[in-house]
């Protein structure tokens, strides 16, 4: 890194890009976040770290009090050029550090989040979902299926994760680009449906809940 | 990793707070690099190659995002770097942005 010109390894964006968007990929330890971002990214995924105090302040706010407990918050991210003018960034992070600056940086302006979950430890997804809810960030859940992990029917997973009826739940293989793309599409379809309230049903149907879009249309086969 | 305050002359926060992780930044090629700190020169060297997001600058330079923002903010103040202005929400409503994201993702299948 020191000897090689850093500009030689950078993948620059074309001058036509005018819009950048971001989506978070979150989940507990070893659920497949980095794998997921790598599968989708057109660039070698990058990583940044921030050292914070337990209270969430940057370490250099506390010069001279170096003995304060600090934690390192890391995120890795990738990039997808979606059109001449639009680039999507995916930020992967454990996401339990609710008060950190990095977490705020990631959530501000984000379109939404994809929560990766593992059926062997669904309960470990709760803290992450709680943080997203605190930040008011809409999310979809993608079960990243590991070999040997139990396969549950969708209602069981929904119940175990205590999902709202409208929250999309899909299955994906974080190692597979197409499968991972389907999961992202499910999220974006959901975000879009939230923006456009469903047309009222003729004859005065229900309002809210049970929206008329296909929650599972993007679940991958297998 | 570099101690942040060494790089930023002791400041933890940028003078302006307009940078998002996905703000695109570009360097002005005609600006002299004399007098810039080594870290700012590295930012310039990287950014002279073309447009990158703030997050990518941090990633390539192996610097924390907070430090990167301070450096970029100084370089904007000194006229070395400009941030590509985001499109105002009035011009690109979120519904439309989401549609474009969706179209782009589907095209990758
Ligand atoms: N079988 C299988 N293995 C996977 C899958 N996704 C990830 N892995 C493996 O699981 C391990 C953890 O994946 P990572 O992508 O590093 O998980 P992470 O969420 O980034 O982990 P942390 O950053 O440590 O929290 C790695 O060894 C991956 O190769 C999957 O879909 N199936
Ligand atoms: Mg990881």
TrEMBL record, chain A:
One of its GO terms (molecular function) is GTP binding. CDD domains: Ras_like_GTPase. It comes from the Bacteria. Gene3D superfamilies: P-loop containing nucleotide triphosphate hydrolases (3.40.50.300). The keyword Hydrolase applies. Signal peptide: none annotated. It holds the Pfam family ATP_bind_1. Keywords: GTP-binding, Hydrolase, Nucleotide-binding, Receptor. InterPro entries: Gliding_Motility_GTPase, Gpn, P-loop_NTPase. Belongs to the GPN-loop GTPase family. This is ATP/GTP-binding protein. The lineage of its organism: Bacteria, Bacillati, Actinomycetota, Actinomycetes, Kitasatosporales.
């Amino acid at each position: 890194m020191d000897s090689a010109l850093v500009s030689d390894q950078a993948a620059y964006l074309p001058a036509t890009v005018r819009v950048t968007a971001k989506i978070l990929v979150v989940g507990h330890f070893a659920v497949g976040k980095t794998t997921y971002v790598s599968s989708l990214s057109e660039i070698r995924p990058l990583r940044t770290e921030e050292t914070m105090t337990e209270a969430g302040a940057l370490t250099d706010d506390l010069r001279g009090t170096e003995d304060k407990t600090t934690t390192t918050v890391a995120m890795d991210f990738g990039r997808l050029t979606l059109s001449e003018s639009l680039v999507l960034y995916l930020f992967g992070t454990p996401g339990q550090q609710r008060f950190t600056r990095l977490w705020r940086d990631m959530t501000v302006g984000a379109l939404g989040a994809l929560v990766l979950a593992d059926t062997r430890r669904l309960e470990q997804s709760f803290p992450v979902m709680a943080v997203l809810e605190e930040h008011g960030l809409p999310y979809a859940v993608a079960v990243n299926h590991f070999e040997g992990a139990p396969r549950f029917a969708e209602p069981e997973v929904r119940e175990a994760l205590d999902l709202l009826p409208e929250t999309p739940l899909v299955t994906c293989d974080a190692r597979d680009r197409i499968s991972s793309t389907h999961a992202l599409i499910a999220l974006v379809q959901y975000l879009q449906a939230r923006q456009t309230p469903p047309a009222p049903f003729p004859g005065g149907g229900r309002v809210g809940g049970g929206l008329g879009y296909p929650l599972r249309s993007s679940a991958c086969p297998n | 990793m570099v101690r942040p305050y060494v790089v930023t002359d002791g400041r933890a926060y940028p003078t302006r707070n307009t940078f998002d992780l996905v703000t695109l930044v570009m360097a002005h090629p005609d600006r002299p690099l004399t007098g810039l700190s080594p870290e700012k020169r590295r930012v310039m060297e990287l950014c002279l190659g073309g447009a990158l997001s703030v997050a990518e600058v941090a990633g390539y330079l192996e610097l924390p995002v907070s430090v990167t923002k301070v450096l970029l903010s100084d370089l904007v103040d000194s006229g070395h770097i400009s941030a590509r202005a985001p499109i105002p929400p009035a011009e690109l409503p979120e519904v439309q942005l989401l549609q474009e994201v969706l179209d782009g993702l589907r095209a990758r299948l």
